[in-house]
Write a structure and sequence with these properties.
By secondary structure, the protein is mainly β. Helices cover 11% and strands 49% of the residues.
């Protein structure tokens, strides 16, 4: 699987963003600020809502976590594991 959100990470998102079943959480690439990635100058942004065509998704606890087609390049040579690390989520880019 190219994109996986652990159950614990999903619960973190639900609590932090006050999510309800049926909600969508988009992970997207940004040029400045946010969560660091393996790509120089690119960071991850998180938005609640459904925007664009979904390229990769994982559903946990009734929430759809996804990366849309515009950002699918993030997973061309990597997979992303979203896990809980202490009190925060951690986005692990693992080379395929």
């Amino acid at each position: 699987m190219k994109f996986n959100v652990s159950n614990d990470a999903a619960k973190w998102f639900i609590e932090e963003f006050d999510l309800e079943k049926g909600d969508y959480v988009q992970i997207s690439a940004k040029l400045y600020g946010g969560i660091p990635t393996v790509f120089p100058s690119y960071f991850l942004g998180i938005t609640v809502g459904n925007e664009g065509d979904i390229a990769y998704q994982d559903e946990k606890e009734g929430i759809t976590f996804y990366i849309n087609n515009t950002n699918a390049w993030l997973l061309e040579n990597h997979r992303i594991e979203v896990e809980l690390d202490g009190e925060d989520v951690d986005f692990k880019f693992i080379e395929d």
